[in-house]
Amino acid sequence: MAQSKTPMLDDLEKGAWPSFITEMKKAAAKKANSQDLLDQLELSYKDKTGYWKHGGIVGVKGYGGGVIGRYSAKPEEFPNVKEFHTVRVNMVPGFFYTTKALRSLCETWDKFGSGLTNMHGSTGDIILLGTTTENLQPCFDELSEKGWDLGGSGGGLRTPSGCVGMARCEFACIDSMDFIQEVTRHFQNEIHRPAWPYKFKIKCSACANDCAAATARSDFAVIGTWRDSLKIDQDAVREYVKGGFDIQQLVVGKCPTKALEFDSAKQELKFDAENCVRCMNCIDMMPKAVKTGKDRGAAILIGGKAPVVKSAFIGWVLVPFMKVDAPYTEIFDLVSRITEYFDEHAKPRERIGELIYRIGMGNFLKGIGLTPQPQMVSAPRANPYIFWQEEEVVKHG
Amino acid sequence: MAKTDFGPPDYRTMIPPVIANNYGKWSYHEIPQPGVLKHVSETGAVLYSVRIASARLISTDWIKELCDIAEKYCDGYLRFTTRHNVEFLVSDEQQLQPLLADLKGRGYLVGGTGNAISNVVHTQGWIHCHTPATDASGLVKSMMDELHGYFTTMKLPARVRLAVACCVNMCGACHCSDIAIVGIHRTIPRINHEGVAKACEIPSVIAACPTGAIRPNPKLKSVEVIKEKCMFCGNCYTMCPSMEIADPINDGVSIWVGGKVSNARTAPKFSRLAIPFLPNNPPRWPEVTDAVKHLVEVYAKNARAGERMGEWIDRIGWERFFKLTDIPFTEKHIDDFTFAPTTFRSTSQFRL
What we know:
The complex is a heterodimer of chains A (397) and B (352). Chain A is an alpha+beta fold. Chain A has 14 helices and 16 strands. Chain A has a 5-stranded mixed sheet. In chain A, helix 8 links the parallel strand 9 and strand 10. The longest helix of chain A has 17 residues. Chain A starts with 6 loop residues before the first helix and ends in a 29-residue tail after the last helix. By secondary structure, chain B is an alpha+beta fold. A 5-stranded antiparallel sheet of chain B has the order 1-2-3-6-5. In chain B, strands 7-8-9-14-15 form a 5-stranded mixed sheet, with helices on one face. The longest helix of chain B has 17 residues. Chain B: GO terms for molecular function: oxidoreductase activity. Chain B: This is Dissimilatory-type sulfite reductase subunit beta. Chain B: Its EC number is 1.8.99.5. Chain B: Its cofactor is siroheme; [4Fe-4S] cluster.
């Protein structure tokens, strides 16, 4: 038995959780670049540092994005990962696949790449991990032939992504999968030819549970909600209570605005519709008994992002409620107005949340033509430094 | 010339008939056992989804294995979740038990539903990232080998979302997770002046610094870093490869707690600092794994039913969180950046 070249990584094949090392070894059995990837990773584990250089500009004809260049910092030692680029493939909305589609994808990737993937990357794309500059174009040609397009990268619109929505969720207030598909088709040019100061992400969750983490991760978050009253089926409520469900602790006591009360005499859930802030908890807890309202649309939140540079932001309410139905004209128009403003006013590598932080929400609202509304703030300003405009005060003389 | 700009494959060609026929008509769901969702439509139709853990970094061989399984029990339909689990979509109830038996036989973990630790959203780490301070996949594997019992059951007070990011860029929704593990640097960039002069756009490098710690060094046609102002974010290295920030001796991991993205009950929250630094000790990161396990256990023992980690902490107060977890509170825990004043306590209400 030959001595293993990867003793540290071998240890990560033990244990109950699925092993990424086992996956890498499967690919390494067939591909020299995956074997070098494994060996370089062993060195990283030994030295406690990464061995990838900055990406270069690589891509496919006609596109400015969708490929992430990656070069080994140790090409003499690991010649087969000298070039090891990522191809971002636009996933199916909702991450649904037929086996036929997945097999066709694997066939192309086995031919041109490392045989390693992420299903999926953080942004939502299918990540095909590792190929050479030379193989990029033939790989894309074949993918495109089979109906797979590339996703976004760089300073443009990133591949929009969303939750499962109406396909398999009773909470869905909007058709998140269809919206994501259509918004992606509509803004293809902005995805494939990045021309903005920095990235711009659109994500959509069909209800306030936000399974797509849209508010935390996207510049433009679409969160499904409703504006009439939620619906309560009292018989179903009784069923839950009869089954030993602690309605007081898990539902009534958790309502953020005390809009719910349980009438134990009538065995009924009383509800103050005007005070409901549509948080989803009672619906989450009793999906058979409480349903969303029927007049459905979405809240739009702007500016969500991770820490670098100014801080992480959780998106801010921009539009308290709007209808989001095909053909999505109104919401596409809003995206266009915002991204045009972003393109014009943002500094290089400044996200829209940071731009708004720098210039003020008031100026941003003016710039994109939206009216201020109390839903946008948790409280009005506490400092007295108000920007008055010349046209708002009496001119002297 | 290849066809371009057609976007994603049409989802309508990828969904099983039971979904096509009940799209937008689902009435409720139940979780008959961990890892199994039962969705019932207004039409009476039923769909079972069986969820399994995935390493996220997966080979085409394994994808083909998933396809074999989906063809045998699910007419060739499957999906992935937003947290990178795999879901087999079972339209025929007769196939449910045979599928579960088959998955068990292969040693797959079925779970990740309801009040569980679902799959860990994570980044590329040393495997494929150019700015990592740690490896993400190795951390996830080490942690979940210890915590998989929380994936295959639903015994926690509420769901617990774990995330790992290999640097403060936090690709993924790390900053709003119940427990986030984030790779950090702790020493200032080492400047290769010749490289900066030759290949870096100096104004962009200076502008990239969040604290204005970088100033020009005209003599060398390069830049210098004001040591006291550097927060070790690595943003300058992202702009300029001649400002190396990776430091194998000092890089490591920080742990953040109490974030969430859902609006249920309480507003979405940022994860906040629990442990400022633990060393990188591959391949198993024992210090990190122990710390995360400890946090999960203290939460499980003390939180009330339906309380997410951040909601539990809000109820008992951070002062008690540090007591209960036995984590030392230091000046590192007090914010000094964009939102710092909003985190200082302005009331005499606190627990002693």
